[in-house]
């Protein structure tokens, strides 16, 4: 009796495994037409296809929770990011690099990098992002995305290939230039896993492509998303002096937390001094009342 029961359990387990495997395999229905936005000529090698498939499977299984959360988080920022990439003539699908780098989290940080695009201080400053005790514009979703689009465009103009541009964004131009000489190839997929380039750099390209493919049609890949309904809606107020965010929240009758979420680059509860053209983001419909009270706000801060 026990033996018969064990056989039935094993059969059910094997059947479940086969069904799940077929579901995973059937969801890997993508072709090179689906990544035509990369504009690369020639067919992908079997090795390149396998690497992209690997990360699709990863996001369907072990990384399913992570990519689901990131795509929901990204609902706030994706329309803005895609618009900026379009204006900069960068494939809008490359915005999903930010999903891999940070999960679209403006506050994400790792060692010396931070923000949705994980800029280093040096690259951030090169592309006009301010970093000081008052502000870190790497965390500003709008400004950092303009910088990311410009950086990717510059890398593409240098290397003539979006694969190499993505790798360069992760590792920096220097290591990619040296890798081109070391491996005597201009084909990213020809780079070897011999330890010269970090694993993260070699993975960033297939991982970003896999994320972009899934993001275009999550259900096709077995990922059901529950939309948060969140969207960014704000107006900008040019501030020439330091202002207390609590006073702005009081006068505009908005929640301080919302004001901080709209301006994640601010390190303190005030706008930065010595930044005469700082653009403070306020909820849509609150620009006029804040601008009318700017002098009052400036005086209140000076009186503290």
Number of helices: 14
Strand order in the largest sheet: 1-2
Indicate the overall shape: elongated
CATH architecture of the largest domain: Orthogonal Bundle
Q: Give Rg in angstroms.
A: 23 Å
Arithmetic mean pLDDT: 89
The fraction of residues in strands falls at 5-15%
Sequence stretches where pLDDT stays below 50 over 5 or more residues: 8-23
Sheet with the most strands, sense and barrel status: 2 strands, antiparallel
Account of the protein in words:
A two-stranded antiparallel sheet has the order 1-2. Strand 1 (109-110) and strand 2 form a beta hairpin. 54% of the residues lie in helices and 5% in strands. Helix 2 packs across helix 10 and helix 8 crosses helix 10 (199-216). It folds into two domains: 45-221, Lysozyme (Orthogonal Bundle), CATH 1.10.530.10; 235-303, no CATH class. It has 304 residues and is mainly α.
Write the layout of secondary structure elements.
Elements lengths: L1 H26 L18 H15 L3 H11 L3 H10 L9 H6 L6 E2 L2 E2 L6 H6 L14 H19 L2 H10 L1 H11 L15 H18 L17 E6 L5 H8 L3 H7 L15 E6 L3 H6 L1 H10 L1
Antiparallel strand pairs: 1-2, 3-4
